Amino acid sequence: MHKEKEYVDGLIRPRTERRETELVLIGTDLGHIILELLPEIERKMRSDAGDYGYDNHKVLGSKGQFADIWRKVGKLKRALWEGVVLQREQPREILLDLIGHCLLTIAMIDRQQADDKEAKECRDMTPSET
User: Fold this and answer.
1) Do 68 and 117 belong together in one domain?
2) 3-state SS assignment for residue 57
3) Cβ neighbourhood burial of 49 (10 Å; 0-12, 13-18, 19+)
4) d(Cα 26, Cα 1) in Å, to the nearest integer?
């Protein structure tokens, strides 16, 4: 378990004190997700970003992310649903990649909504020419 770490400012940091909620989470699926899987996903995303480049996912935008998700879902379906033994990526790694692609897509959607809101506010502040 990663009991010695916690989320601070969106990053995993050393834990300075034990929290009561941690005791409730230990031994549950949610505890496993929060204490084990989320830090693993963060490490994988940082590693992949280092390999691909930190802005590479922006080249094709959300459509590119969708294509990556769609390709991974097909492989995952073959392994989990059809029982095909995959030669390279295994279902767990595919799922971690899918989570990363989903998070990147959500970040793109959030950024686009923030940009649209800012553009609307700028338009609203500018006197219209009629």
Assistant:
1) yes
2) helix
3) middle
4) 9
The radius of gyration computed from the CA coordinates of the chain, to the nearest angstrom, equals 20
Asked if residue 86 lies in contact with residue 64, where contact means CB atoms within 8 angstroms, the answer is no
- 31 and 4 co-located in one domain: yes
Our count of domains for the chain comes to 2
Which pLDDT score is estimated for 48?
A: 86
Angle between helices 91-125 and 38-52 (to 10 degrees): 80
| 66/20 same-domain check | no
Same-domain status, 30 and 92: no
Q: What is the pLDDT of residues 77-121, one digit of tens each?
A: 999 999 999 999 999 999 999 999 999 999 999 999 998 898 888
How many angstroms separate the Cα of 20 from the Cα of each of 15, 34, 38, 39?
A: 13, 15, 19, 20
* CA nearest to 99, candidates 40, 15, 25, 21: 40
Residues 117 and 107 in one domain: yes
